[in-house]
């Protein structure tokens, strides 16, 4: 049923529903983007002649074990992901997924939360759905752009390493991809995972965390995966209708 992923690029033929928006298939640098980080490849390069696999592949070794199984499904949700990139020597590779493009069968539809992203094809747990792409900006630019409207397309992710924390801010308000239409759910079927490929700045990759049926809405938790308390909730009512709905959307954490 599924083909192995051997560099088969998936065309991104999606577009916006509104022609005032600009479609980008991946992140582009915006105001405040650290261009050194943007242009620096992670310190890796493999020389694999066969499928990239532990323990031989230097890229996978950065994380310890394989990122994806033979069908491209994510193996673990809580480890750093470095995919092979153009510097690598590998010719057939199981460690390339997000860079191959979004899955087919996604659809933008309008419902109770404004536009949302739906799938016309069932998705299995662990499969990559699409990126959340837009302009890479810094916190002060995000604060400047942030409005008090109820509709917000600025995504902030903090990654905690042993000796430092990195913050990545992506704004898809005007320039973005299909990922900008994904709504929040308190009981989501996807999650966002930072994935590094050819830049120190991660791509924000959306993976299914459960099997998703045809026609289901794609959702993730805007507040991250940890439990969040009443203090972290905004004043925007949540319409996710899940059994454990917290009543309000998570706050724009890290922005204010
Ligand atoms: C990234 S956009 C998602 C796409 C948006 N619905 C649209 O029409 O373009 C985020 C915004 O969608 C709305 N939204 C997302 N999830 C929601 C939810 N569970 N309940 C109510 N509104 C939601 C909020 O206005 C939020 O600021």
From TrEMBL:
InterPro entries: H3K9_Histone-Lys_N-MTase (IPR050973), Post-SET_dom (IPR003616), Pre-SET_dom (IPR007728), SET_dom (IPR001214), SET_dom_sf (IPR046341)
Pfam families with a match to the protein in the record: Pre-SET, SET
UniProt keywords, alphabetically: Chromosome, Metal-binding, Methyltransferase, S-adenosyl-L-methionine, Transferase, Zinc
GO molecular function, one term: histone methyltransferase activity
Record-annotated SET domain positions: 102-223
GO cellular component annotations of the record: chromosome; nucleus
Domain Post-SET residue range list: 234-250
Pre-SET domain segment(s): 44-101
Keyword Protein biosynthesis recorded: no
Keyword Protein biosynthesis annotated: no
Superkingdom of origin organism: Eukaryota
Subcellular location: Chromosome
GO biological process: methylation
Protein name, entry field: Probable histone-lysine N-methyltransferase set-23 isoform X1
């Amino acid at each position: 049923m599924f083909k192995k992923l051997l560099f088969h690029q998936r065309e991104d033929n999606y577009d916006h529903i509104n022609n005032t928006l600009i479609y980008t298939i991946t992140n582009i640098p915006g105001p405040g983007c650290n261009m050194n980080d943007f242009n620096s490849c992670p310190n890796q390069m493999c020389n694999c002649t066969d499928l990239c696999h532990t323990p031989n592949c230097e890229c996978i070794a950065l994380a310890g074990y394989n990122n994806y199984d033979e069908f491209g499904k994510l193996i673990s949700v809580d480890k750093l992901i470095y995919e092979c990139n153009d510097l690598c020597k590998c010719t057939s590779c199981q460690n390339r997924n997000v860079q191959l493009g979004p899955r087919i069968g996604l659809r933008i539809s309008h419902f109770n939360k404004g536009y949302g992203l739906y799938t016309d094809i069932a998705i299995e747990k662990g499969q990559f759905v699409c990126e959340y792409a837009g302009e890479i900006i810094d916190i002060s630019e995000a604060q400047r752009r942030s409005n008090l409207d109820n509709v917000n397309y600025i995504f902030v992710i903090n990654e905690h390493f042993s000796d430092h924390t990195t913050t990545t801010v992506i704004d898809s308000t005007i320039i973005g991809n299909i990922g900008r239409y994904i709504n929040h759910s308190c009981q989501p079927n996807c999650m966002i995972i930072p994935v590094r490929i050819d830049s120190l700045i991660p791509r924000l990759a959306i993976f299914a965390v459960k099997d998703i049926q045809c026609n289901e809405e794609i959702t993730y938790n805007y507040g991250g995966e940890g439990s969040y308390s009443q203090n972290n909730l905004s004043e925007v009512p949540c319409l996710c209708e899940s059994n454990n709905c917290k009543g309000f959307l998570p706050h724009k954490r890290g922005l204010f």
